[in-house]
From TrEMBL:
GO biological process: cytokinin biosynthetic process
Entry's family note: Belongs to the LOG family.
Annotated protein name in UniProt: Cytokinin riboside 5'-monophosphate phosphoribohydrolase
EC number: 3.2.2.n1
Entry keywords, A to Z: Cytokinin biosynthesis, Hydrolase
InterPro entries associated with the record: LOG, LOG_fam
Length: 193
């Protein structure tokens, strides 16, 4: 993987462990020579992960819609900052630039971005690994919901396997590097529709 897109909160959350995990993720990306693609903000976990990559000498590409430049305080020290027109353009551009996706703790936007790239993977639109960094159990309830969806027949077990998970950034990046994308025929069959 040359670049990983990180989805995360524009808030730092209530506990220091979240910012610590964002910084650790950023440092590790830079140490491994993996560029960061993210939402372009200078606040919350977004700012933490970007600053950590930059401090470690890594490359950071931010993609931010015009209307959020002021609200999220667009980061001005990035390697590249792309300003786009809409949130849809932002997500599509980040997906185009990245070789994989990681969700750190965050709110609705983070969950939206994660679920969208998982859906695209399920549909065979991309074959890139998608993972969650389950910092101190932050994503336990979401992962349980995914399992519940399998049990209730809304998500096939094979699609649940698209969600890679780990509590430490190094372990998650290893799982992502080992990810083998399934063929479209395996995942999308007429009987699955």
């Amino acid at each position: 993987m040359k670049r990983v897109c990180v989805f995360c909160g524009s808030s730092a959350g209530n506990r220091p462990v979240y910012a610590e995990a964002a910084r650790a993720t950023g440092r590790l990306l830079a140490e491994r020579g993996i560029g960061l693609v993210y939402g372009g903000g200078n606040v919350g976990l977004m700012g933490e992960v970007a600053d950590a990559v930059l401090a470690a000498g890594g490359e950071v590409t931010g993609v931010i819609p015009r209307q959020l430049m002021e609200r999220e305080v667009g980061h001005q020290r990035l390697t590249t900052l792309e300003v786009v027109g809409t949130m849809h353009e932002r997500k599509a551009r980040m997906a185009d630039l990245a070789d994989g996706f990681v969700a750190l703790p965050g709110g609705y936007g983070t969950l939206d971005e994660l679920c969208e790239v998982l859906t695209w993977s399920q549909l065979g639109i991309h074959a890139k690994p998608c993972g969650v960094l389950n910092v101190d159990g932050y994503f336990d309830a979401l992962l349980a919901l995914f399992d519940h969806s399998v049990g209730e027949g809304f998500v096939r077990p094979a699609y649940r396997e698209l969600v890679l998970e780990a509590a430490e950034p190094g372990e998650l990046l290893e799982r992502m590097a080992a990810f083998q994308a399934p063929s479209t025929e395996k995942w999308i069959r007429p009987q699955d529709r």
